[in-house]
Amino acid sequence: MPSAVRSYASVNDDIAADGPIGDPMDAVTVRAHELAEAGRLPAFVYDLAALDEHAAAIRDALGDVELYYAAKANPDPELLRVLARHVDGVEVASGGELAHVLGVLPEVPIAFGGPGKTDAELAAALDAGVARLHVEGPGELRRLIATGREADIMLRVNLAVSLGDVALAMGGGATPFGMDPDGVTACLELLDRQEAVRLRGVHAHLASGLDAERMLQVNERVLDHARSLGVTEINLGGGMAVSYADPDDRFDWAAYGKGLAGLRRSGETLRIEPGRSVSVYCGRYVTRVIDVKRVHGRLFAVVAGGTHHIRTPATKGHSQPVIPGTPGEPITISGQLCTPKDQLAENVPIALEPGDVVEFAMAGAYAWNISHHDFLMHPHPEFHYL
After folding, report:
1. pLDDT in tens, 219-247
2. Which residues are catalytic?
3. How far, rounded to the nearest angstrom, does the alpha carbon of residue 98 sit from its chain's CA centroid?
4. Residue 98 dihedral angles phi and psi, to the nearest 5°
């Protein structure tokens, strides 16, 4: 029988104990053990009630600021249906995402972004009547104008701002995303020569991993640039900080909403499009231990599945948070792939034995949908919802 594991104290605050006294198990852990007993691991388990509560709190903090969800973080249909109650629209970055989102939420407003839109994708966006097209540069705009069709666009700007230490820099330097001031000028000249494609504003997503204070500083620079162009609709992007090292250290949405209210001028429409910071906390990746062994003095647990199911820890070079269990000797948790990069968490201080259930938190974003599913052709995980 797999051993019970404890969840974070913050998770248990509002959930009654389902396990033995002194060994509280939240609803996701209960489901994880049911799946283990049925031989149905690995699996992703999503807490839709937690997602609904978190999204509602974000919506409340933002006031009049429009909230779009970046589908690239996790396009799971059940998550999209929950988020539809709280968002003003969804941002997609490919023709595939466009078709998928509209298949789940056919009436939702869509912002279509992405740095390499093909002619077929531009046509699909126009056919779908997307609310906004985020134009990446003069070349893309020329192809859009050549269709002769009407469209409402935002120019994606790449500003030369100092970003400092960030998780991921999308602007402020030599990246292919968006355009510099010369590119913006070229686009404005193209727009002046025709009437079908209408400029509605600017879009900027310059970095990921910013706390509320630094995010507002970057936003202020974007707003200054937008105002210099005479536009009043500004999409400030996403990139709100998420800490895998400390899951309880969350982005301060209240402070951010208050700060945006202070920056916004009368007549301006402000929009953001977060992804990871919205959905990451609602999901867990649950698996079981196949083997435990010591190699050159180091203790390893090999689990079913691995980074072909949840690629984030390998790409970001961190340990995926593990729901705490019985304390034990630090152990490194690896998956089934034939690569040393298939490591989910390093030196976790818990006791593990073959058959034990392991729950990885913060698996609600950039997990299954960003992973190399069929490397070694292991079975795909199941998906379950509370």
Report:
1. 999 999 999 999 999 999 999 999 999 99
2. 338
3. 16
4. -60, -50
